[in-house]
Amino acid sequence: MTVNKFIRNLLNLKEMAVTHFELDDRQRILNLWVKPYKNGCRCPECNRRCRIVNETDTYRIWRDLPIYGCSVLLWYCPKETLCRQHGRVQENIPWADAYGRVTYRFEYAMLVYCQMMTQKAAAAILKIPPSTLSDILHRTITRIREGHRIRGLKTIGIDEIAYCKGRKYATIAYDIDRACVVWVGKGKGRETIDVFFNEMLSDYQKGKIQWATCDMSQAYIGAIETHCPNAKLVLDRFHIVKKLNEAVDQVRKEQWREASVDERRALKGLRWLLYRHSSTRSKRQTRILNQLRKGNRRIHRAWILKDEFEQFWDYKAPWAAERFLKLWTTTALKSRLEPIRNFVKTVREHWHRIIPFIESRITNSTAEGLNRIIKIVKNRASGFRTLQAFTDMIFLAVGDVDLPAQISEDFRTL
Ligand SMILES: [Zn+2]
């Protein structure tokens, strides 16, 4: 076995031969001069063998996986060929995409590492600067997702998410049945979501959507009702609960403002206690809240109403749920608590979008689960400066395409 062949086998270089090598010991770079293994050039479009028309001496360099702390660079001068069907084209490079600066093998490792760790950590392992990795990652993901179409969307969820420390927003569309993200768009509101419906879905696909869920923003409700003629809209449970929690908190704040120094002592630490779902409250915590009956009647009343409202989600029959909600709203209106009364107004306004929850059972918990993953991705990178980097990570973590699996099996080695 020649040394060149030994290196080729050692590094498991497929579809190529090593003609020459040089180890830059100081910079820890292994330079390999290679050529496609099979004789003759092929057209990248049709893979037909073609005649060589031009042999250039401009080298292109591809980065491969590093070994033993050494970066590995492949050097080769691609030839120009004449394809009968596609004309003058640069020959097919078997180890990389036509415009790629890294090998398929490198792309695969990069995708897998970025699913597991921060881009910074992945960049350190792959021995490239983080900004370069972010660049290559984006190109790879864009190439793999190119021409990808959304399929079989029946239950859609729309939500907004803040990135870059809460100053910028992105709108995310979920496929709730398959628990994945199908689209990410810049900004929030009607304009953003209209782009999704107009550009990503055909009329046929829009007609196929049966259920939709979103928050109470008029922008998303309006968009869904305009674009999805057959969809039944169910307001997202978590957003409704959040609204009610906010109302209760407002009551607490008002009481706090009016309270004397002595009274305030009793109201301390209530904020998070009031947010708690009854199932996650300890006995001691419930006792503290019950003591409010004597301490502060208004907060107590708000809390009781909030606790009662939880029952709504457990109903199995729509008529029973509706009866409950009618009773609850009547009681709540009589409470003389302005924030709660405002919440009731919201509920009445969206009545026909809340009751279908019982029938549909869309809890949006899948979407919530996805949101959680997105938040982890977001925190791991401690806020993304650009939406592009954020979108890449979302598609990598919870997108509708398994990205590493799109790389040919021959190159899936780490
Ligand atoms: Zn061709």
Concise account of the structure shown:
This protein has 414 residues and is α+β, with helices and mostly antiparallel strands. 48% of the residues lie in helices and 20% in strands.
Q: Helical amount among residues, as a percent range?
A: 40-55%
The computed structural class is alpha+beta
Output the number of helix runs: 18
Global Rg: 29 Å
Biggest sheet details = 5 strands, mixed
What is the count of β-strands? Answer: 13
Q: What is the overall pLDDT average?
A: 88
Ligands, deduplicated:
zinc ion
Distance between the termini: 25 Å
Tell me, what's the shape? elongated
Strands of the widest sheet, in order across it, are 11-10-9-12-13
Taking pLDDT < 50 over at least 5 consecutive residues as the criterion, the unreliable ranges are none
Report the portion of residues in β strands.
Answer: 15-25%
Tags for this entry?
414 residues; five-stranded mixed beta sheet; 18 helices; 48% helix; elongated
SSE layout and pairing:
Elements: H1 3-10, E1 16-24, E2 29-36, E3 41-42, E4 49-55, E5 60-67, E6 70-76, E7 79-83, E8 87-90, H2 104-116, H3 119-126, H4 130-145, E9 155-163, E10 168-175, E11 180-186, H5 190-200, H6 203-208, E12 211-214, H7 218-227, E13 232-235, H8 237-258, H9 261-267, H10 270-275, H11 283-295, H12 297-309, H13 318-333, H14 338-349, H15 351-354, H16 356-360, H17 365-380, H18 387-398
Parallel strand pairs: 2-6, 9-12, 12-13
Antiparallel strand pairs: 1-2, 3-4, 4-7, 5-6, 7-8, 9-10, 10-11
Helix pairs in contact: 2-3, 3-4, 4-18, 5-7, 8-12, 8-14, 11-12, 17-18
Bound molecules: zinc ion.
